[in-house]
């Protein structure tokens, strides 16, 4: 162990590699942001590059049935499982250069550092690039670490059938870019000793508290619900229902002209959706159980002259514990039921799809390894324990192998946006802590 | 006049022509609905057919600068302006076979009837097909009758620059299908004696009241506003603002974890939009001034893991009078200002575009001609005076020439939808009333 204490990653190389690969594969033209949707050409290109770089370092590379990439640097111990470092290379449609990418690039930098210093570890040391962490092209975030952990509610065959907005299914997309591998996507057949993930915080806490490193102890539970509200279509100048009773014949203009009375008889899906979306926030605020967000909304009609008959939206709910999550979700749908019942406008809602990630508590040994590495590097005052409000692949790995995470600061807390930024110094620091955490864990278990 | 009383249009020919041309040009494959967007290939094809049919009847055909088609059957009077019948052949993206189409096809059937019966009218009798009534491909409904009337707030050159969702401008689209004509699009240079428009009701009143013919006396005023709500983007697991004050350094997990407190500090554009959309309805209901609808809504983000930073929606407001319209619009924006001020979530709204059609009152002589024709055909008990809740080309023509409209029933009041339906009997009846109204007006003015 003593000999490793002085080992240092090459921060210049890390930052240059991160920036140049982003510039080459998936950069937005209008900003420093990224559009590297999973299994796209840009994702294939950066994967091909990654595999080549790992092979240069003498790593064995495997691709599993969901396209997850595993690059292993052998250890000297007999029959020991790998200690893995990983994250994801895919991004949101207009995301940044750090979310996920920093974790994979730092893992590569750790491998490069071990290689050029000829460090012999007890365990094999592994780099992992998880497929479709973002869920931006194929709905279902952290999809492929979820399949690997076998704890996700969506099994492999169901994931293969998930389609993007062009109707391309995931299996076809994997095959087309040459990453439909044969290694079983199952931790029981392709297992790990431990898993460490460096990630940007994607929130403002480290910056607000003036800290450099987050020692992540848990990931809060989260659920998504795809909701559809249905009403009755109609022309916006008219009533959309025929509840008015037939009147008396007359020549004179009726006082109940089209346009003056129909509002009360409408069955307007967007009005109901607006009330439900407002209730999502009100319920989260009033219960103080967690956060709930509606980010995506679409209307069946694209004409301003129509009363909308169908609205789809997605609710994202996150709470520190599964019990709080269940309570907040229940409170939201209780509020929905009350609104739909009281509106009596003949609209209805249904939940057409849901997805969830249970609360994850990281492993004490992994947390201890990260803490030791972080404190050794920057001292206690620059470190902070925290829970993650965002989901990560480590949440799934933690269900089946000892796992934990390292956070570095996000400027202004911004993520999933081209303005996402983490300084080169913080990127370097994160990679250095990752290296030392892995070595500490390797030393601990030998 | 006496000799014309017995003149009858050929209902079988009318309905067969209407159905067969819809089937050929713009029919949806999955229903009896139509997708004949203005200036599309389907629109070009039906226009070419219409021009050919009118020329077969000896009509002179002119195309104006906005692609409006004018087919004139000469009259025997010296220097008299034409009495016109018209409507539009374009449809919504998923519309029906009657909205607009019935009016043009019935005008053709009237010309055919006059031709085969060798009827000599005093005035020339004209068929008009107005370009882009729907405003579905190029925003701005009733666009080209508006230019012709010179009363629209959008002049010809501005209309030429309006683009569709593919970025094609209207002038290019007119040119590409060969309908960028040279006749001035201006009633002062290409004028009319009077204008009659047969249209489906697009509402449920005739059906509810058990009537066959609507004698339309006015079109209510309407305004559209494109509204943009802006907030601050952020990850849905996190706060999107940094209003929390720096806390005290500690090793233990803070009670103010990401995910438990950020709701109040968010600047969520969709929450504000939901409150505004709900206020649109509430204001319309409480004031009883008219109807107000939000049919189109889009979010900048397509990720459920994002707090939305920008929402666009369109408000459609309609009232019987311009004064009521102004009052309702003012009340809506007063409500908006109050919501944005009270929310203090740092969201804002702006009106990025607006469009309006002033209240239109039809001409007593034209209304009298329609009434005489309708009562002669079906008797008083089957007729009903009404105002139109939807905008029509006749609303613009009425600003500059005597105009009025004839309505026939819409099944269940449904329009702008493939389920739109008017029975063959009602189509025939409408065309017959149109014929007799035109002949009555021709007789009246000689």
Automatic annotation (TrEMBL), chains A, B:
- Compositional bias, Low complexity, is annotated for 236-245
Keywords noted in UniProt: Hydrolase
Region annotation Disordered: residue ranges? 236-264
Top-level taxonomic group: Eukaryota
The record, for Pfam families, names:
Peptidase_M20
GO MF, one annotated term: hydrolase activity, acting on carbon-nitrogen (but not peptide) bonds, in linear amidines
Q: Which InterPro entries does the protein's record reference?
A: Amidase_Cbmase, Bact_exopeptidase_dim_dom, Peptidase_M20
Gene3D superfamilies found in the cross-reference section: Zn peptidases
Q: Which ranges are annotated Polar residues under compositional bias?
A: 250-264
Asked if rRNA processing is a keyword of the record, the answer is no
Family indicated by similarity: Belongs to the peptidase M20A family.
Recorded protein name is Peptidase M20 dimerisation domain-containing protein
Which organism does this record belong to? Cryomyces minteri
